Sequence to fold (131 residues):
Amino acid sequence: MEDSFSEYKRRDPESTILYQVLDRNMERFFASLESNPDQKSLPYFVRKEFEKFLSCGVLRQGLVRLKCSDCSESILVAFSCKCRGFCPSCAGRRMSERSINLTENVIPFVPTRHWVLSVPFELRYWRATRR
Fold:
């Protein structure tokens, strides 16, 4: 258990270029969309995804302190947004978890080259807006 504490390194989302660009320009972007009557506005869930991304991994947005009962060493772990579409950290984690589930539980132990799930066009918007 002691090794896992020494190996943990908090990712610093505030220092990434994507975070900095969105943090500086997101409100201006949404304001420009709303002020232009000819421009179609983005759905609410898109704005919500952007806002959740800006709070993902940021300590001031929420955290948990983990303390080892043996050595009393503690670390801070920031909450994640768990978004489906935009956050590279959460999307990567979700992709990894799903691939492990598919290879271990869903797809039988036979040679498989590719597995694809196709959703008809009529259902894609509905699936994107509803869980």
